[in-house]
Amino acid sequence: MNPLSHVAIIMDGNGRWGLKHKNSRNEGHKAGLKTVEIIIKETIKLKIKYLTLYAFSTENWNRPQYEIKYLFSLLEDFLLKKIDDLHKQNIKLNIIGVKNFSKKLNKLLNSSEKKTSKNTRLQINLALNYGSKSEIINAIKKISINNDKINEKNLSKYLQTKNTPDPEILIRTGNTKRLSNFLLWQLAYSEIFFEKKLWPDFGEKDYIKIIRKFKKIKRNFGKI
Ligand code: IPE
Ligand code: IPE
Ligand code: MG
Questions:
Q1: Atom 12, ligand 1: which residue's CA is nearest?
Q2: What is the CATH number of the domain that holds 106?
Q3: In Å, what is the CA distance from 151 to each residue of 143, 155, 156?
Q4: Nearest atom, ligand 2, residue 56 CA
Q5: Rounded to whole angstroms, how far apart are CA atoms 42 and 17?
Q6: Which of 30, 61, 113, 213 is 20 to 30 Å from 128 by CA-CA measure?
Q7: How far apart are CA 183 and CA 77, in angstroms?
Q8: Which residues constitute the domain of residue 104?
Q9: Minimum-distance ligand to the CA of 26?
Q10: What is the pLDDT of residues 65-123, one digit of tens each?
Q11: Is residue 98 one of the residues assigned to a domain?
Q12: What residue's CA is closest to ligand 2, atom 1?
């Protein structure tokens, strides 16, 4: 059975779900948030230590303003309502990506991270304004400023996922097979599961099914 410490998820399909069921993309984002809560709960039950969720990419700024605004208001609401609960559950929140949002949201993100920084049961890396290519470039810049050696170990150390093992599993919902600039370095040897279901329709059963499948995969890492 393969050990499992880190699951990464590209939570895709909210917009299509919203249009189909409520004639509004934003309603899909709202529904998607419920799936986030379900998956966090299940991740704890499964004793997985790291969960990285792609919530907003650097490319997502190209969406209409009303959708971007709505997404960040959902996030703000969620943190205000749930951060104490996450903290009580011993969950650590870690933001990856560049925090260049409104003053208010930046402050809320920082205080949420600080509050939960010592927690040990589960670390959630929330990818916000995240792009993998720029993460890698920034890491290389920092290595050279510090006059450090450029090697794999150091590069991993300078990425925003430092102190997090690489994900053994990547899940992308929404019936699309691409990485969309997500964790390009960290996913080098991950098992990838492309799910047909849209994110709001994805549930614990689908999640558990993937984990079971993963456990039985023969992971070669180049060997035979
Ligand atoms: C993913 O769902 C969530 C974000 C990018 C914020 P989408 O909004 O991309 O949903 P689809 O792919 O348009 O259905
Ligand atoms: C990837 O989904 C980003 C997130 C889930 C946050 P997108 O829906 O933005 O990806 P593309 O643009 O279809 O590749
Ligand atoms: Mg999408």
A1: 13
A2: 3.40.1180.10
A3: 10, 6, 9
A4: 6
A5: 22
A6: 213
A7: 27
A8: 6-131+169-216
A9: 1
A10: 999 999 999 999 999 999 999 999 999 999 999 999 999 999 999 999 999 999 999 99
A11: yes
A12: 180
Distance from the alpha carbon of residue 173 to the mean position of ligand 1, in angstroms: 10
- For strands 169-172 and 91-96, give the pairing: unpaired
Q: Say which DSSP state 221 is in.
A: T
Residue with tokens 């093992």: 165
Strand partners, 7: 51, 169
Number of compact structural domains in the chain: 1
Please indicate whether residue 71, judged by its CB atom, sits closer than 6 Å to ligand 1.
yes
Segment 46-54 mean pLDDT:
98
151-187, pLDDT tens digit by residue? 999 999 999 999 999 999 999 999 999 999 999 999 9
Proportion of the chain above pLDDT 90, given as a percent: 100
Q: Which residues of 67-90 are buried (b: 16+ CB within 10 A; e: fewer)?
A: eeebbbebbbeebeebbeebbeee
Whether 148 is covered by a domain: the verdict is: no
- Which of the listed residues 180, 183, 199 should we mutate to test ligand 2's pocket, taking the one with most ligand atoms within 8 A of CB? 180
For 80, phi then psi, to 5°, come to: -60, -40
Would you say residue 87 lies in a domain?
Answer: yes
Judge if the beta carbon of residue 180 lies within 6 A of ligand 2.
yes
* Ligand 2 close to Cβ of residue 171 (< 6 A): no
Question: Is 201 tagged catalytic?
Answer: no
Q: Which atom of ligand 1 is nearest to the CA of 11?
A: 1
Q: Which residue has the CA at smallest separation from atom 1 of ligand 1? A: 12
Whether 12 lines ligand 1, by a CB cut-off of 6 Å, is: yes
